[in-house]
Design brief:
Elements (H helix, E strand, L loop, with lengths): L1 H4 L1 H10 L1 H22 L7 H22 L8 H20 L4 H29 L5 H22 L5 H18 L7 H6 L3 H12 L5 H14 L6 H6 L1 H19 L2 H6 L1 H6 L7 H22 L5 H27 L10 H17 L3 H8 L5 H30 L1 H22 L8 H11 L4 E4 L14 E4 L3
Antiparallel strand pairs: 1-2
Helix pairs in contact: 2-6, 3-4, 3-6, 3-7, 3-8, 4-6, 4-20, 5-6, 5-8, 6-7, 6-19, 6-20, 7-16, 13-19, 13-20, 13-21, 13-22, 16-18, 17-18, 17-21, 20-21
Length: 478
């Protein structure tokens, strides 16, 4: 019966994450299509124009999360996702039927804008519809679906025309719009808007039962706590618990980008060519996409069994190990040593890094983001976090070529290794375990840890033990 009751929530989760497939698809679109844009005589594109077409996506992705603040708490998570799907449709039309290079500009700007919204609203939606015991696994669907979309673009793109690949991007948002009438708004949003009857109906659908009175009451109390303080940008920064949660999140997202993930994804072909001669760029990107997808699949199962902390910390540790190995190879190569006997090392290290990254660092960032921030400031915190991540990724991408030319590739990768190693320390001490905790329990835990009277003692209690947090909170009594 419990398994049958999970069907509605899985339907809602899978339907909503179709948008993440579209986002991943458009992220991977440029890799197989860039050379074809220059070869396509029907729509002439220069190299400079092609470069700008690729960049348009990243530029608009920074704006997307900011615009989400205007809709997600006013009109709802579901309406925001419908608007995102419409934006993806517009982008698909522009990329499928381009009349000139300006159509590519508008199409890429639109899908970048929509993708920025997707990475912000989807984690919020999934966290608010899920039961506590499966929230982590459902949230990992974001990574799995995103990687699936990227693999589709990588696998199909090299063998079809620009227009045909654009048509694939047109079909997926249509599927979402066909299914969305049966996808509920979150109960949390309805309670926040003072609509308890709609909240109950939504929760009854998601749980597959009418016995939701107890959960509704917990939800009302959670919303009441969240809304005791007006949700503003100032509240996000000035409230001690909110600020600590935000800093933990920003640290994890910084570790993601400073690990050099964007650089390895972009330069994977040259790394593969050091081991396998004449490997095509299309083959190398397919291998990269498939590795990330396969590595992220087990996390759906383990996120709610092992917990968030072990996955993130283990991911960071092994990322450091594989990045160090890759750095050492580049260093030996740079100083003229014969590396033919360890020619297997770069591809092994890269595949190992991509797997380690996907297991925790790459997959748990957004779920943790939605769990640690209270509902009244999520509309501000999520855009801040995703914009922060995008800016760091952009800076890394801009600085890397200069560092490589002036100081060598090994210097850049040693830098990535050191950055992740350093960020393990604050992550170890400040990242709380949220496995099997309700969103209200997480907020209570964070607020207890932020009170001025608290002291940290390694004394396990039923609510706070070594298995779910590094420290226990003991409130000083007068």
């Amino acid at each position: 019966m419990k398994k049958m009751a999970l069907v509605p929530v899985f339907f809602a989760a899978i339907t909503s994450t179709i948008l993440d497939i579209v986002a991943g698809f458009h992220t991977g679109w440029s890799s197989p299509i860039l050379s074809k844009l220059l070869e396509d005589t029907s729509v002439p594109v220069t190299e400079d124009q092609a470069s700008l077409i690729v960049s348009c996506f990243s530029i608009a992705a920074v704006v997307g999360p900011i615009s989400m603040m205007l809709t997600v708490d006013r009109w709802g998570r579901k309406v925001t996702m419908i608007l995102v799907a419409v934006a993806f449709l517009i982008a698909g039309v522009m990329l499928t039927f381009p009349q000139n290079y300006w159509w590519y500009y508008i199409g890429r700007l639109t899908c970048g804008f929509a993708t920025g919204n997707v990475v912000s609203v989807l984690p919020m939606y999934l966290a608010e519809i899920a039961e506590d015991r499966i929230r982590g696994g459902l949230s990992i669907l974001i990574t799995v679906m995103y990687n699936s979309g990227t693999v589709v673009a990588y696998s199909v793109g090299p063998w079809v025309s620009v227009s045909n690949l654009g048509a694939i991007g047109l079909v997926m948002p249509l599927v979402f719009l066909l299914l969305v009438p049966w996808m509920p708004e979150t109960p949390y949003f309805y309670v926040m808007k003072g609509k308890p009857d709609l909240a109950r109906r939504s929760l009854e659908f998601l749980r597959g039962t009418t016995d939701v009175a107890e959960e509704i009451e917990r939800l009302k109390k959670s919303v009441e706590i969240d809304l005791q303080n007006t949700g503003t940008f100032k509240e996000l920064l000035m409230d001690r618990a909110n600020r600590k949660a935000l800093l933990v999140i920003l640290g994890i997202l910084a570790a993601q980008q400073l690990s050099g993930i964007s650089i390895i994804l972009y330069y994977n072909t040259s790394i593969f060519n050091q081991v396998i001669s004449n490997i095509s760029s299309s083959t190398s990107v397919i291998i990269t996409g498939v590795v990330q997808l396969i590595a992220s699949l087990p996390v759906v199962y383990f996120a709610d069994r092992i917990g968030r902390r072990p996955l993130v910390l283990g991911s960071m540790f092994f990322s450091v190990v594989f990045l160090a190995a890759l750095s050492a190879y580049f260093h030996l190569q740079a100083i003229g040593n014969d590396v033919s006997t360890i020619s297997w090392l770069p591809v092994t290290a890269m595949v190992g890094y991509l797997s380690a990254y996907a297991v925790g660092l790459g997959s748990m960032g957004l779920p943790i983001l939605t769990e640690l921030l209270p509902g009244n400031v999520k509309a501000y915190g999520i855009p801040v976090a995703t914009t922060w991540s995008t800016i760091i990724g952009t800076v890394v991408s801009l600085v890397y070529p200069t560092v490589k030319i002036m100081y060598g590739n090994h210097t850049a990768f040693y830098s990535f290794t050191i950055c992740v190693a350093v960020l393990i320390i604050p992550t170890f001490f400040y990242l709380p375990e949220t496995k099997n905790k309700s969103l209200s329990e997480i907020q209570q835990m964070l607020r207890v840890r932020s009170t001025s009277e608290q002291k940290l003692e390694p004394v396990p209690t039923p609510e706070c033990s070594r298995s779910n947090s590094i420290y226990c909170i003991a409130i000083g009594k007068n």
